[in-house]
Amino acid sequence: MMKTVAIVGRPNVGKSTLFNLLIQERAALTHNTPGVTRDWHEGKAALGGLVFRAIDTAGFEDEAHEMLETKMRALTERALEQADVALFLMDVRAGVTALDEQFAKWLRKQNIPVVLVANKCEVGSDKEGYYAAFGLGFGEPVAISAEHNRGMAELYENLAPFLEQEEETSALEDSVPDGLALAIVGRPNVGKSTLANHLIGEERLLTGSEAGITRDAIPVSWEYRGRTFFLIDTAGFRRQSRIEEKLEQLSVEATGKAIRRTQVVLLVLDSKNMLEKQDLTIANQAIEEGRALVIAANKWDLVKKPNEALAGLRERLERSLPQVRGLVCIPLSAKTGENVESLMPAVIEAYETWNQRLPTAKLNRWLADAIDRHPPPAIRGKLLKLRYLTQVKARPPTFALFVSQPDKLPDSYVRYLVNSLRETFMLYGTPIRFRLRKGKNPYV
Question: How far is Cα 159 from Cα 44, in angstroms, rounded to an integer?
Fold first, then answer.
């Protein structure tokens, strides 16, 4: 079984930079603002001949009276419980701080091997901080610069005794493993992380009443009914006009990247204020990326007239998102667990629809019937000829229609065909790509 390395330390010592270097991907947000990482990241890492699971943790804070900092510290502690060895990072340029000393004292009480890493040892850097690190009680520190990829050979030598050696992979797999990848998206403070924790069955992600606790796109894998799922909990989308700080820009970029890397997008709404303009913006981004979409109306336990509210929501979805007509909408409460069990079957069904391939013969029988019911318009007294239809790919379902004059076929008629195709073959809730091509049946 793959060994685990937890990267720990106070905020802003370069933990996420080292994590990204080890997994060979910019998965964790990095910024010179302390406390950017709040949840933990994990990924498959490689260093020389070592292959292991790496965990990037939140900065170890001393403000135990603050609820958020307490939760971040608890996650760091849980990450250490899962790890086989800890990389304790300190910043040589800042020297040994009181928080470094407090963390070292706590870390010595844990039953885990520790490798002390002196980060930011660039050429010509002050050696005083490096020598001060000896006083933390973990022996000689490993001098590295994660930002400049220096000192990795020395880090390998210090990690090797604690990790099983495996054949080095030629290249790391993409951070999304085999399985169904699901992104949870939505506005800030709608309950995305609470819902994610309920789905995976543990308090894995930070939650709280404060808006914007989740800053990065946090990937978590888990098993559901014998099937592997890869869930990404994202930062809340804000209006572009409100994105002023660099950190928020990075959060939105990470969320957009998460949508592109997943197959199904779960849009979480707040039942107290459903389907705002920003919700529709997020939904349209998922549709433009060609992802299957499922709606979760959270905090449903607070709705006074649930039947009326659900009917109104479905009507608005049909009107506002006609390009994914028949979208599945699950009312639930992540806090109480009400109806959460209906969510994963809906996600799986949306994924299977998104993957569906239709036989060419069936498609052309449907096309003939659709033309009989509603013939295409005539151009200068001459009917347009719809010659042949085929599905060119799935994910999302994409079709090519060969037409005598594709530029003359009205958009209204194309919408008629798409809606009829969706209803006939039950392609509900998934984007449909419809391409017009000129020419005769290419398969004759």
Answer: 15
Worst-scoring range by mean pLDDT, 162-171, 218-227, 297-306, 371-380? 162-171
CA-to-CA separations, 31 to 40, 69, 197, 251, in angstroms, rounded = 16, 18, 26, 11
Bridge partners of residue 185, in order along the sequence: 267
Residues paired with 53 in a beta bridge? 4, 44
CATH architecture of 4-162: 3-Layer(aba) Sandwich (3.40)
**Total residue length of the chain:** 444
Looking at every residue in the chain, the average pLDDT score rounds to 81
**Mean pLDDT within 29-44:** 54
Cis peptide before 442 (omega within 30 of 0): no
The CATH superfamily of 360-438 is K homology (KH) domain (3.30.300.20)
Q: Say which residue the tokens 């990450």 belong to.
A: 79
Of 286-290, 332-336, 378-382, which range is least confident?
Answer: 378-382
40 pLDDT band (50/70/90 cuts)? low
**What residues contact 112, with CB distance under 8 A and at least 6 apart?**
80, 83, 84, 85, 86
Of residues 125 and 278, more confidence is placed in: 278
Give per-residue pLDDT as tens, 126-185.
678 888 999 998 988 999 998 888 888 889 888 988 885 443 333 333 344 457 889 898
Whether the pTM exceeds 0.90: the reply is: no
Structure tokens belonging to residue 410: 């009205």
Residue 238, classified by CB atoms within 10 Å of its CB into exposed (0-12), middle (13-18) or buried (19+), is middle
Parts of the chain belonging to CATH 3.30.300.20: 360-438
The tally of CA atoms less than 13 A away on the side-chain side of residue 433 is: 21
- Name 436's bridge partners: 401
Amino acid symbol at 288: E
For residue 208, pLDDT beyond 60 = no
Strand, helix or coil for residue 437: strand
Q: Are 369 and 360 a contacting pair, CB within 8 Å?
A: no
Q: Which CATH architecture describes the domain 180-354? A: 3-Layer(aba) Sandwich (3.40)
Q: Where are the alpha helices (DSSP H) in 83-122?
A: 98-108
CATH 3.40.50.300 domain extents, the chain: 4-162, 180-354
Measure the CA–CA gap between 288 and 321, rounded to whole angstroms: 12
Give the other-Cβ count within 10 Å of 184's Cβ.
28
Calculate the alpha carbon distances from 160 to 14, 154, 264 in Å: 22, 10, 39
Between CA 201 and CA 246 the distance in angstroms is 33
